[in-house]
Fold this protein.
Amino acid sequence: MQITELETLDYPPLTEDLEEAKAHLDKYGMALIKNVLSSEEVEEMDQRLNEQFLGEEKYKVGSKVRGDEGFGIESSEEEKVSRLVWNLINKGDCFIKLIDHPKILPLIQHMIGEKVCLCSMGAHMNGSGNERMALHQDQWPLVPHPMNFPFMANVMYLISDNSPENGGTRLIPGSHKWPLIDYKTANGEEIQEKAVSLTAPKGTAIVWEGRLWHGNGLNRSGSIRSNISTAFLQPWVKPQENHQYSIRDEVLDKITDKQKHILGFTPYGTLGGHDGSSVSPANFDPKKESIGILKP
Ligand SMILES: O=C(O)CCC(=O)C(=O)O
């Protein structure tokens, strides 16, 4: 297969129509959903993210990156202008609604099926002066053998306007239907050229399936570009974030039963339960209820 034979499409138009968005996902492997977040929601999330960025900076926690670490390139502390602010569920009530956003969840289910599990939720806060991350497929590194069906899907909520100037997300529409290509080929010049930063206003959500090639762009705008990634899996795959372990107690009280299902607090068939999955773990307290050594 020649690289020139790999079909690419232009970005689909923004839409607010659910059925049109599903058709875009099938054709392009992605959809751009307009006005998913209101300006008040965007402002609240933006404020919280900027505060968290500085807080993680102050306490020297979290992930500081330049962007090109996936190529094995090392950079100095000063060059690491971006932050990945992980596990937002613990970092502000405003993010909890993204676990099952009603305008987005049906699109995720369209791609990977009715039962979904949250892989992780984190902000990509790309600083000006960053480097481009390697183009990748989200689901590719997760399994020992590439599987050519979508078992993962991602959403990026735009908290900043995205444009080529501030390193808007770069995706290759149509690449979900490409034959399997290796990481090195995908990051060669010919394919890199096909991945262009999109232009879309804050409040938009980019939704894509796990086989679509994508990455971030170069931010040279002088300001941070923040997008929130909320990735989902079919429930048989181990998620990036172990939510049962990492969600703080005070946050757990604010989470609905439906959200707990998506966070993996319930078994899937015979998988992921406890004590043989015989107990519904939705309100299970692992410290009190696991059966230990018993004697007659
Ligand atoms: O920050 C971006 O624009 C892209 C992030 C990304 O590639 C991802 O979340 O998989």
Summary: The domain at 3-271 is CATH 2.60.120.620 (Jelly Rolls). The chain has nine helices and ten strands. The longest strand covers residues 117-126.
